[in-house]
Every structure is written in structure tokens, then in C-alpha cells.
Specification:
about 20% strand; alpha/beta; globular; Rossmann fold; about 210 residues
Length: about 210
């Protein structure tokens, strides 16, 4: 595997030097713009307890805390490097967030606890996605929301290219995500497409 492919494969589970470089990139540039697009469809108020799943470099933890006064974020990531980076990035937010290593397949979070769960650029790597969505469903309160934000709508050529070179990656169409979310129990699913880019934001409600 060439160096470039090794770097892109850090997207799934950042490790070592290349993982740290990847995480630094996740906190800025296009990733930040994509996250802002997704957050734009969230409710303006009423969110107190947030689960940030696949938190990466931790930038979105800070954004969510700024968006919702008095909120608390519990962040989970599969990668130890991600947890370290997110903790460092959110040092100023230490009293308003908890960041820990974990796996969405066996999500160790309290049931019916959260008003909002978020997944930015991460469901590509969730195996048995319907089962993972069911785990998210279970940690949400009634009327709680689950936001998925993806850079690929599952149809663009760039997304398909990365799918072919990153181990374990699957780009989903809006229709596939909607179907899996409803099978997991979500009663309402709304999809927002970016006007210029193949970005999608999916908001599901319990």
C-alpha cells in the first residue's frame, strides 16, 4: 500500500503520526464547512444532552457546546488518538464534556439519556449499520434527534473513489440511510442536500 493510501486509510481509525496529521486536518478546512452545513438544520434550542459519535479531532464538540448554552457533550471515538486529540482541543470545555474511547457497535451509554446524537463523516465505517442505528435510537430520549452528516451522497465519483481505496468504507445514498434509520425505529427522517456539493445532512427523530 502506497503512502497516500496509508494516509487516507487513517480516516477510519487514526493511529500514529499519520493519524495525528489526519486528525489535525479534520478540525479545519472543508470538514469544518461540512459540519457547519449539517449543524444548520438542527433545532435552535431544547438540546441539553448530546452524544457526539466518532468525534475525530474534537472540533464539533466545541461547536455543539457553543450552539447550545448549558449543554453537555459525551463524545465517543473508536481511535485512542482521536480521544487524545479531542481532549486537547477541548481543554477549555473540560467541565462541559466527557470524551472516551468506544465502539458504536456496543455503545456503552445510558439508555434514553440524550436529546441529540451526531455522526459527522463517520457512518461510512459503521459495520452492520442498521444495528448501530438501533443502538443510537436506544440512547435517545423520545423526540430526540440523530444527525448524520456525510461529504458523499453515495453517488458522486469522489466518494466512490475513496470507497475503493479505504478499507471498510461504504458510502451510502440518502435513500439507503433513510431505509436503515426507519428499520432501526426512527419515525421521521429528513434529508437536506447541499446546493453545490454532494453533501447530505440527515436528521432522524425518535
Amino acid at each position: 500500500m502506497g503512502l497516500l493510501n496509508k494516509f487516507f486509510n487513517q480516516t477510519r481509525k487514526p493511529e500514529g503520526f499519520l493519524g495525528r496529521v489526519m486528525l489535525s486536518g479534520m478540525n479545519g478546512g472543508g470538514h469544518a464547512k461540512l459540519a457547519n452545513f449539517g449543524m444548520g438544520i438542527l433545532p435552535k434550542e431544547g438540546i441539553k444532552q448530546i452524544a457526539e459519535l466518532g468525534c475525530g479531532g474534537g472540533r464539533n464538540i466545541d461547536s455543539l457546546l457553543n450552539k447550545y448554552d448549558g449543554s453537555f457533550v459525551t463524545a465517543v471515538d473508536y481511535s485512542e488518538e482521536s480521544v487524545k486529540k479531542a481532549e486537547k482541543f477541548n481543554k477549555k470545555n473540560a467541565l462541559r464534556c466527557e470524551i472516551k474511547q468506544g465502539d458504536v457497535r456496543t455503545l456503552d451509554l445510558p439508555k434514553s439519556q440524550f436529546n441529540l446524537a451526531t455522526a459527522f463523516e463517520t457512518v461510512y465505517f459503521w459495520p452492520e449499520i442498521e444495528s448501530c442505528f438501533r443502538n443510537v435510537f436506544e440512547i435517545l430520549k423520545e423526540e430526540g434527534h440523530f444527525l448524520i452528516v456525510n461529504e458523499s451522497d453515495g453517488k458522486d465519483e469522489t466518494g466512490k473513489k475513496f470507497e475503493s481505496i479505504i478499507d471498510g468504507m461504504k458510502v451510502y445514498t440518502a435513500e439507503e440511510l433513510t431505509d436503515a434509520l426507519k428499520k432501526a425505529g426512527f419515525k421521521d427522517v429528513k434529508v437536506t442536500h447541499h446546493e453545490k456539493n454532494p453533501w447530505i445532512a440527515v436528521l432522524a427523530t425518535k
